[in-house]
Every structure is written in structure tokens, then in C-alpha cells.
Design goal:
The complex is a heterodimer. Chain A is an alpha/beta fold. Chain A has 4 helices and 7 strands. Chain A has one domain (7-131): Rossmann fold, CATH 3.40.50.300. The chains are: A alpha/beta, B alpha/beta.
């Protein structure tokens, strides 16, 4: 369990995470409204060095941010039936060539089988503090996270 | 087309989200505004579902075009050009409109104009308030965007973004807070209604990015959303009832306070006499009221279309198309794509 005291800490943590990501990585973010999923993704974007503002993808479901070490695909999966539907969005990018960050409603993660990093964020009652839990699934996530 | 020629008759097609909008405009005169909405089909999901929207557009397209022609009393063969929203929006939804527009343009042998949805939201003002022969500042607020723009000419090919949201769009904040309060979807009109019976001063929610050192024309609504969530949760934990109307009113006040302060400040700094409101959130009654108040105080003329033209519609696309035709803008190629993240500064594809 990692505790992040301020939004700046969330951003810095995301940046550190972004720096160790590789092409084809999938990150699944869960947490309640206002937990800081988008703030964390902004940090990841900074770590990858992508261009442009990483803003909420809710309206368009997914945004692609280029211009960095790797492209960042930022998905709000709240209204998608499955992650396969990301392909249907015609993003003009291969997930194997980019880093995909999915903001996901809790409970749907089980349907995913591939290697992924699950990041759950929660707000501690009545404080600005965010608690982050990282759960590596498959791949070599565990070794890579040791560097964080 | 020379300025002396008769005004352009343009068919506009809008399918960027959940409304299939077909408008017909002659110059800056609205002849028809037909909208088929699939919003009821999305309500149970709490948001627009891309696949559902695309299918609904496909079903509604031809009947809605016919309805618009009947309303306007014109034949499809009478139109001078076809304008369509090429982006930004939901990729699959945009694609249906763009494909239909290409088919009409090809079949009728008329020029095609693939236009920017956001610029269309700004241009619709011409239909309501007539031509504006000078630069203005526009506050564009919708479910997907919140921006302050400098617009040298409404319906022109240029506009400059002075600032935008750094996280959530204003309309998105309305949707998310409505969900939090159990009001349903879409959140804008539901919060607006609940807020009428609430006290906007009862809870002091934060005004994002309103400090002296913050970017003057940028917005942030994510912190506000979190503050509302925390306030509601604290109430629920204490076993107290949540005063939904007061929360709605106080939240709404926080949003429209920041929007109007920054928009009016931008108009003043840019030295323009007119502030224009556009986008779905511009239908919000409190935003319209507060903008009118603050513009009056600063001696700025407020231009805001009626609520029905603020939300997505085809008339706005036709209005922009007619301006482009009349100013001799080059038509789009017939192989233009739909661009879900079309940059705001690209008015025409």
C-alpha cells in the first residue's frame, strides 16, 4: 500500500510508473469517483513524455497521446461492454506498440486474462490522502515494480 | 460564390454523440432543425454507449433528412452544399454522419464540407442573433469540452483557444455529480432542475484554478467533483440525509461562477464587445442568468442561442457550412475521415 499525500504526489508517482512502462503494457485503474485516476494518468503521460493535455477521456471513450517515448492510449471503459470494444473505436494505433491505461469500473477486471498491472486508488476519509494498491498480474510486473 | 449571389442553402448533418441532427439553413436563416435522439436508450447505462449511438444514427439518418426537407419546404436537389460534423466526437457515431454526407454529396453532385463540431456550436449563434461583423470571445461548454476561444469572425476559418479544461469538461462534471446524487442521466438538465429548489450558498464548494497564479483561462472540474463526492459521503457516513437540491445548487453555482468570471475576463482582456455562449451546458439556466448579470455589469453584450440550439443539432453544422460556402472556403475531399479528436483550431477538414 502506497500513500500519496497530495495531488502533486499522485502526479509524481504516475511519472515514476510511466518511466518504467514498455510497449504493450496494460494498466487497469480502479477507484471511486474523484479518486485520482485521471491525475495518475496525467503523471504516467508525463513519465512517457507524451504531448498535449491528458484530460478525461470520458466523452470520447478513448484518447491517444503521442509524441513521447511510447504512445499512451487512455480509455474510460465505464460504458464499454468489454475491452475488445476498444478495438472497435478505430483508434488507428496498435495496443502492442503503445501503453494502454484503462479507467475501469470495479468488478469488470476479472474478465481480463492477459498480463496487466492493476492499480486501485482510494481516498482516505476526510483527507487529501490517496492510497494506491498495485497488483501485478502475469508478465514480469513484479520484478519491474521493484525498481519503483 | 460572390457576395451578390443568393444566400447558400446548406444541409447540415450532426452525429458526433447521441443526437442525429439534420438542419437546413439559407445564409443565416434557419429553415429546419430536425433531431432524433437516442438519449433514452443510453440513460440506463449512465452515459452514451458508442455502439448503441452508432446504430441509432444509422436508423434515424434518412427519415430525419426527409423530415428536415419537409420542415424547410425544400427538395434535397435544391441544396447548394452538404456540411457534416467530421469531429471531434465518438468515432463510430461520427462515421455514420460522414458516410451519409459523402453519399448525399456524391449523389446530388454538391460540395462537401467536413466541419468541426465545436466551431459549429459557436456558429449557431448567427441563426439566432444575426451576423456579427467583429471579433468576439466564445465560451464553449459541453459534455466533452470546456474552452474559452477568441473568434475573429463567427463562421470563419480561424479561432484561437485561450484556455481549456485541464481534466473534466463542465458537462461531464454535471453528469458525474448527477450520478453521485442518484439523479440519473443526462446530468445537466436534472441538476438544473434540482438546483432551482436548493440554496446555492449552502455549501462552499471549491472554485478550481481561480487563484492569482493559476492560468487565467483554464478550467479544472475534477477537484470540484471530488469535493462533492466527499461531502456527500461524509453525510451518508453520519447517517444524515443528503440535501440533494442544496448540493445540486451549490455545485452548479461553483461551475457557473468560474465559467462566467473567466469568460468575462477574457472578453475584457481581448478588448471585444461580445461574449458568445455555446455548447450543451450553455442551455443551463443558471449559467445564462449569471453570464447575463456579469456581462451587463462589464458592459459586454452577451449572445446566447436558445437552449434548443445549444445542445447538439444539425442546424449549427448547416450554419457553419453556409458561412464557409459564402466566403469561398474550399470544399473537403470526398475521402475525408471522421476524426474523433479533431483539434479545435481546425474548423474545416
Amino acid at each position: 500500500m502506497i500513500e500519496l499525500a497530495t495531488p502533486a504526489d499522485t502526479h509524481a508517482f504516475g511519472r515514476g510508473l510511466g518511466e518504467l512502462l514498455r510497449a504493450g503494457d496494460l494498466l487497469v485503474l480502479t477507484g471511486p469517483l474523484g479518486a485520482g485516476k485521471t491525475a495518475l494518468t496525467q503523471g504516467i503521460g508525463a513519465g512517457l513524455g507524451v504531448r498535449g493535455p491528458v484530460v478525461s477521456p470520458t466523452f470520447v471513450i478513448a484518447r491517444v497521446h503521442r509524441g513521447g517515448r511510447l504512445p499512451l492510449v487512455h480509455v474510460d471503459a465505464y460504458r464499454l461492454g468489454s475491452l475488445d470494444e476498444v478495438d472497435d473505436l478505430d483508434l488507428d494505433i496498435e495496443v502492442t506498440d503503445s501503453v494502454t491505461v484503462v479507467e475501469w469500473g470495479a468488478g469488470l477486471v476479472d474478465r481480463l486474462s492477459e498480463s496487466r498491472l492493476e492499480v486501485s486508488i482510494s481516498r482516505r476519509e476526510d483527507t487529501e490522502v490517496r492510497q494506491v494498491l498495485l497488483k501485478p498480474v502475469g508478465g514480469d510486473w513484479a520484478e519491474r515494480l521493484a525498481a519503483l | 460564390m460572390s457576395p451578390m449571389a443568393s444566400e447558400a442553402l446548406v444541409l447540415g448533418i450532426e452525429t458526433s454523440c447521441d443526437e442525429t441532427g439534420i438542419g437546413i439553413v439559407r445564409g443565416s436563416t434557419l429553415l429546419a432543425d430536425a433531431v432524433a435522439s437516442s438519449v433514452a436508450e443510453h440513460a440506463r447505462y449512465g452515459g452514451v454507449v458508442p455502439e448503441v449511438a452508432s446504430r441509432a444514427h444509422l436508423q434515424a439518418m434518412v427519415p430525419t433528412v426527409h423530415r428536415a426537407c419537409e420542415q424547410a419546404g425544400v427538395q434535397l436537389s435544391d441544396v447548394d452544399a452538404i456540411a457534416v460534423t467530421a469531429g471531434p466526437g465518438l468515432a463510430g457515431a461520427l462515421l455514420v454522419g460522414v458516410a451519409a454526407a459523402k453519399a448525399y454529396a456524391l449523389a446530388l453532385d454538391k460540395p462537401l464540407y467536413g466541419v468541426n463540431h465545436l466551431s459549429a456550436h459557436v456558429s449557431v449563434d448567427l441563426l439566432e442573433n444575426g451576423p456579427l461583423e467583429e471579433a468576439c470571445v466564445a465560451l464553449l461548454v459541453s459534455g466533452g469540452h470546456s474552452s474559452i476561444l477568441r473568434v475573429p469572425r463567427v463562421g470563419g476559418l480561424e479561432l484561437t483557444e485561450l484556455g481549456a479544461t485541464l481534466d473534466d469538461a463542465a458537462g461531464e462534471a454535471f453528469d458525474k455529480v448527477a450520478r453521485l446524487l442518484g439523479l440519473g442521466f443526462p446530468g445537466g438538465p436534472l441538476i438544473d432542475r434540482a438546483a432551482r429548489d436548493g440554496d446555492p450558498a449552502s455549501i462552499a464548494f471549491p472554485r478550481g484554478l481561480s487563484g492569482a497564479s493559476d492560468p487565467a483561462f483554464a478550467f479544472s472540474f475534477s477537484g470540484l467533483k471530488t469535493a462533492v463526492a466527499r461531502w456527500v459521503e461524509a453525510r451518508q457516513r453520519a447517517g444524515e440525509p443528503v440535501p440533494v437540491n442544496d448540493v445540486a445548487a451549490s455545485f452548479q453555482e461553483a461551475v457557473v461562477d468560474v465559467l462566467t468570471i473567466k469568460a468575462v475576463r477574457a472578453a475584457r482582456e481581448q478588448g471585444v464587445d461580445h461574449l458568445l455562449l455555446g455548447g450543451g451546458v450553455a442551455a443551463n439556466s443558471r449559467l445564462r442568468e449569471l453570464a447575463a448579470e456579469r456581462c451587463a455589469r462589464e458592459g459586454i453584450r452577451l449572445r446566447v442561442p436558445r437552449p434548443g440550439l445549444c445542445t447538439d443539432n444539425g442546424a449549427m453544422v448547416a450554419a457553419l457550412g453556409a458561412q464557409l460556402v459564402q466566403h469561398g472556403a474550399p470544399p473537403s475531399a470526398l475521402d475525408i475521415p471522421a476524426d474523433s479528436s479533431m483539434p479545435i483550431a481546425d474548423v474545416l477538414m
